[in-house]
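User: Hey, quick favor. My workstation is busy. Could you predict this chain's structure for me?
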Amino acid sequence: MKPKVAVTGLSFALCAGAIAWGVLSDARTTHLEAYLAEIEGAEDAVPYEGVREMGSGAETVKLRISSRGGQRRIEFLGFRGGVRPVPGKRAPRVPFFGGLPMVFRPGEGQWKKKIKDFELAVRNYDVIPGGRETVAGRVAEVLELRPRHPGRPGYRVSADLENRFPLRFQVLQDSVTVFETRFESISFHPAFGEKTFDEPARRPGWLRVEREEAPLDQLPRRAGYALWLPTVLPPGFEARGAEFLRLGVEIPEEAREALKSFLPIGLPKMDVPVAHVNYTDGMAVLSVVECPADSELWKFMKKFIPSDGPSTSGGKIVVRKFADRRGSAYLLELEGTVVLVAGNVAAGEIERIIPTFERR
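Assistant: No problem, here it is.
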């Protein structure tokens, strides 16, 4: 073979190999995205009834869950270790442990999902088969999602071998489980009783919550006050949803009396515009929640913020930090706007983006 022909043949072989590798890589990525989508969708698609533990450490609770067609009935059974609700006292359906009340969580649907964005998850995490294990008497295939960016939590999903149902889900920080949800027992396609699914509890008449999605560039106009958003995000994060919320509270006198045992300081009348923006790397979430600093909502919330908590002040920016094993949150006051930045990422990642907030 002549040298020129040999070089041409070698170039062709290298190009063909690169193309083949790219095709195989794309096929693998598409397969992983589809697999993660199956796992995320199975919990709504497959009817089931089971007992699930959820939380970490002393905050782990037991729930009995019945689900069909996306409708759920949840019964609070108690805490890990056999602690049960006090007889005669109605326990909340889903206990609340120091996080944001659901009404204030940006992108409520995003917070509920285990996998926030399949494409970003595959891009920012190495998805590695972890063998098989038995969960709730079922054989499950284990997937490990190891972050490609330092400091992020990792994830471990155990999906039913037959229907991809997520039987176990763990959030890991430096190999330590900081959150876990796991079924103790489960049955699929059970025979549900007639009254298994009650009508969802109605929101009290004195509480008005209006939500609507809005393009990110239109959110400042919709909110009607100055919004502050980061110009730099942690590596791998992208905006995934923005919404406008209007929170109204007008409590009748009889309802105020009933609430005194829960809120001794009283709940003021409110009509507050709140803006929510979500960012994600596919698994972890970074959320920005904003409201006017002169609103009754902020005046009310300040009463619950420890005055001796760690804080720093610089110019017109006041930052208060709150953190636990599951993530970090920072409260900022920026020229008349209160900004909550929260996420299940390392505190340092949030601290690096705070100086990049700009007024919109």
